[in-house]
Write a structure and sequence with these properties.
Layout lengths: L2 E6 L5 H18 L8 E6 L6 E2 L2 E2 L3 E6 L8 H20 L21 E7 L6 E2 L2 E2 L6 H17 L3 H13 L20
Parallel strand pairs: 1-2, 5-6
Antiparallel strand pairs: 1-5, 3-4, 7-8
Helix pairs in contact: 1-2, 3-4
Length: 193
């Protein structure tokens, strides 16, 4: 349901991109109690793009997150989101070898092109469709999953891998409390995305 746009100027290996996408998916799905299937991440090399800050051409790594707005979220939730994403970036991008010919760690203080300079959280998704389903309002995920559970299961039973993974994710994490379309949920103290 959210869309994370990772724009990088430093070279990233395919495995770093995969690891970063996985980290963002995990962070978002756990912080906002969202099925992993609906966390979208796009990673784009913008090293040749013209980007500007304060009217001057500047190159920076940045992440722009488009999420659904909700009155249940506070600045503390977004600080946590930014902090966890930043920690993951540092762990994945600056702590791993960048290239077989350069197997040393990258110090972003000495190599600012590896620093994650900016994270913007935009409450800009007010509606839409994903995987042929209308997306729910933030905070309405549990009811939405219950209403669509039969169709989710049908698609999983038909052999659609992403739906099999989604069913497994929801059941393993207890997002519906009982693993199915009926019964008590487990929204607890976390906040939905």
């Amino acid at each position: 349901m959210p869309m994370y746009e990772v724009e990088h100027i430093c070279p990233l290996t395919p495995s770093q991109k995969d690891d970063l996408a996985e980290a963002i998916t995990k962070i978002h799905s756990e912080l906002f109690i969202a099925p992993r299937l609906f966390v979208n991440v796009r990673i784009t090399d913008i090293s040749e793009h013209r980007t500007y800050v304060a009217g001057k051409r500047r190159k920076r790594n940045r992440i722009v997150a488009h999420i659904r707005p909700s009155s249940q979220r506070t600045r503390a939730h977004f600080r946590t989101l930014c902090s966890q994403i930043s920690e993951s970036w540092n762990s994945i991008i600056t702590s791993l070898p960048q290239h077989p010919f350069n197997p040393t760690e990258v110090d972003p203080n000495k190599n600012p092109e590896y620093e994650l300079s900016t994270i913007f959280i935009m409450g800009s998704i007010v509606g839409g469709q994903e995987a042929s389903f209308e997306i729910p309002e933030a905070g309405g995920e549990e009811q939405w999953m219950r209403q669509n559970w039969v169709e989710f299961k049908r698609r999983a039973d038909a052999g659609e891998e992403e739906w099999q993974e989604m069913i497994q994710d929801v059941e393993e994490r207890g997002l519906l409390g009982d693993g199915g379309g009926e019964g008590k949920g487990t929204n607890g103290t976390k906040h939905e995305e």
